[in-house]
Amino acid sequence: MTAKKNNKLLFILLALIVLIGAIILFMPTVAPDNAAQQQRKSPEETTLVKAGDTAPDFTVEMLSGEQTTLSQLKGKVVLVTFWATWCPPCREELSHVQEQLIDRFAGRDFAFLPISRGEEKATVEKFISQKGYTFAVGIDPERKVYDLFASDYVPRNFLIGKDGKVILTTVGYTAGEFAHLVKTIDEKTQVQKEQ
Predict the structure, then answer these.
(1) What is the per-residue pLDDT across 152-161, written as a single tens digit (0 to 9) for each?
(2) CA-CA distance, 178 to 89, in Å (whole number)?
(3) Could you give the CA distance from residue 63 to residue 103 in angstroms, rounded to a whole number?
């Protein structure tokens, strides 16, 4: 009788497993908390300022405590880069900045303005110090500046001409896209140098 009871229990247990598996299989795959994430928009849909638009003016606090205002940089080609310390593509892009942007375009009408999105000053300072970066960095802990340009995704680059109009925007990081960005800066700063 014990064997029959064990077989009966085993059969009931197996039936319960099959029932639970069927419930899980046919449950909705998107829970209400994840609905927004499942409907995430494309980078293009979240870009608020596009090539040809006049860049919105803003003032950002730098790690040094100074303030930088975009309109004060008019007359220069300005690369505004939004990034975050936790973002691997941002980290990769920043590792190329000193040599390929700052050193390469030294003496030209060019300004690099990296702005950390949504992070506190202490977090950004620690990251910059650990990496040994010496370029000036802006902080935007409440995303006030970022939200003028986009609603999602980092890294983001907005290349702004000397007239204040956006020349080029990029989202994410690839070596090819960064090379195109560098080439465009080179072309735009050469034209300015000749004038």
Answers:
(1) 999 999 999 9
(2) 11
(3) 21
